[in-house]
Amino acid sequence: MQKTAEQVVIERELTIAASPETIWELLVDPEKQQRWMGQDVTCDLRPGGAYRMEIIPTHIASGEFVEVDPPRRLVYTWGWEPREGADPNPVPPGSSTVEIELVPEGDGTRLRFTHRDLPTVDSAESHGHGWDHYLGRLKVTAEGGDPGIDPWLTGQM
Fold it and tell me: Among candidates 52, 123, 129, 41, which has minimal Cα distance to 93?
């Protein structure tokens, strides 16, 4: 995790034994995405197009696509919709940016993940924990495995 005067950044890199095309489909096809992250996903996959994803009940991420370059690069804004009765979220919709690069490497793909513009170290730690969970599930799915039911859907966080 890097911190500058203006932002906190999460960076992850992992090698996945699958083609960029396979991983790309898991990132952008709502039905396929629900196998590893989210229970209700809608998106308009084009620059300026909106997406909305209910990750777990009452936790809804939304934003818009900034860059769509299949199967190499996906950039979108990220944040959490307000929840009734909850404190305001420090990461509102569209306030941070997620970048995913897919680079062919041998028979697989190197996935480079960056989540930037997070407002605090605490929010970066929380998001980092979440991304570690979901990127692990993406890897299992892309490599042909079944990550099973997301334990976070059953409250086993």
Answer: 52
